[in-house]
């Protein structure tokens, strides 16, 4: 399977934080959810992909091209959305259309107009009068209006109400109906990621904890509930994290290793993330 994004041993050092040899691969035609707590390294990774900050080590390829050597060519085919609008607050939609038509070779005013209509965005208001949801819809409309093949989204649904988030997630799913398109989306709203992602990469304290298909994660892990005495008899090799309380123990386990002996509930992606980093050590 062809990868649209490949990162190998990516490293960046700051005082008090290191992005430590991060590696991942995003197959063409799919969505990868990039999850982790605030400060885990998500935005640093995205800035390195976009060559906005200097790396200390590692390699990044986008569309099979080195992101340093072919930066301009790559960015023509990228759509990028950060969690804040970067346009001057006195601009209006028609001004943005005019400016971006001079920047992107493949800018499509018709596509942009269609998204403005789809998102019900006002064309005669200054951006300063837009709600947060309207600003995010505008940013997404821009990212989708120059025939980008890869969307890179950093907390694009953060702070939005559930109705607006669902509307935006539907647009993302529509975008990847073209099997040449892909999305790399970071978010701390794990339920959004679980709805749309094909792959999940979990980063914690600058290190990749896992990078797997969503279906594989959900199929492999479950929540086992048992009494304290029963827990002490479990093979801890297949216990990935657990929490004890006065009534018993809840543990994230490899389902196949305990099937038939215990009742195992479904584990969400959020469960897998939280038990992995917050569950007591084995």
**N- to C-terminal separation?**
36 Å
Q: What pattern of helices and strands is seen along the backbone?
A: EEEHEEHEHHHEHEHEEHEHEEEH
> Helical amount among residues, as a percent range?
25-40%
Q: Determine the number of helices (DSSP H or I, runs of at least 4 residues).
A: 10
**DSSP summary, beta strand count:** 14
Q: Describe the largest sheet.
A: 6 strands, mixed
**Overall outline:** globular
- The strand order across the widest sheet is 6-7-8-3-9-10
Q: How does the helix and strand content classify structurally?
A: alpha/beta
Low-confidence stretches: none
- Radius of gyration equals 21 Å
**Averaging pLDDT over every residue, what do you get?**
91
The fraction of residues assigned to DSSP E strands is 25-35%
Topology:
Blueprint: E1 3-14, E2 17-27, E3 31-35, H1 42-49, E4 57-62, E5 65-66, H2 71-75, E6 78-81, H3 93-103, H4 109-118, H5 132-143, E7 150-154, H6 162-175, E8 182-186, H7 190-196, E9 199-204, E10 207-213, H8 214-220, E11 221-226, H9 228-232, E12 239-245, E13 248-254, E14 264-266, H10 269-278
Parallel strand pairs: 3-8, 3-9, 6-7, 7-8
Antiparallel strand pairs: 1-2, 1-4, 4-5, 9-10, 11-13, 11-14, 12-13
């Amino acid at each position: 399977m062809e990868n649209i994004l490949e990162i190998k041993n990516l490293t960046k050092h700051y005082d008090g934080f290191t992005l430590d040899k991060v590696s991942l691969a995003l197959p063409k035609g799919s969505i990868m959810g990039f999850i982790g707590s605030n400060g885990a390294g998500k935005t640093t990774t995205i800035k390195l992909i976009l060559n906005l900050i200097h790396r200390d080590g590692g390699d990044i390829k986008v569309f099979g091209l080195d992101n340093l050597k072919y930066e301009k060519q790559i960015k023509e085919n990228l759509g990028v959305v950060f969690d804040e609008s970067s346009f001057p607050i006195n601009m209006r939609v028609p001004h943005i259309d005019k400016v971006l038509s001079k920047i992107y070779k493949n800018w499509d005013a018709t596509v942009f107009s269609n998204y403005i209509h789809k998102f019900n965005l006002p064309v005669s208001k200054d951006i300063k009068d837009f709600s947060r949801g309207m600003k995010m819809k505008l940013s997404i409309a821009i990212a989708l209006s120059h025939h980008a093949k890869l969307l890179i989204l950093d907390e694009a649904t953060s702070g939005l109400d559930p109705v607006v988030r669902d509307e935006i997630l539907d647009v993302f799913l529509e975008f990847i109906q073209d099997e040449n398109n892909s999305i790399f989306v970071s978010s701390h709203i794990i339920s959004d990621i679980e709805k749309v992602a094909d792959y999940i990469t979990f980063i914690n304290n600058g290190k990749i904890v896992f990078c797997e298909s969503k279906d594989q994660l959900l199929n492999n892990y479950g929540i086992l509930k048992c009494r304290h005495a029963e827990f002490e008899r479990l093979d801890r090799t297949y216990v990935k994290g657990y929490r004890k309380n006065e009534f018993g123990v809840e543990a994230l386990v490899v389902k196949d290793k305990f099937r038939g002996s215990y009742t195992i509930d479904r584990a969400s992606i959020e469960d897998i993330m939280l038990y992995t980093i917050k569950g007591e050590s084995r």
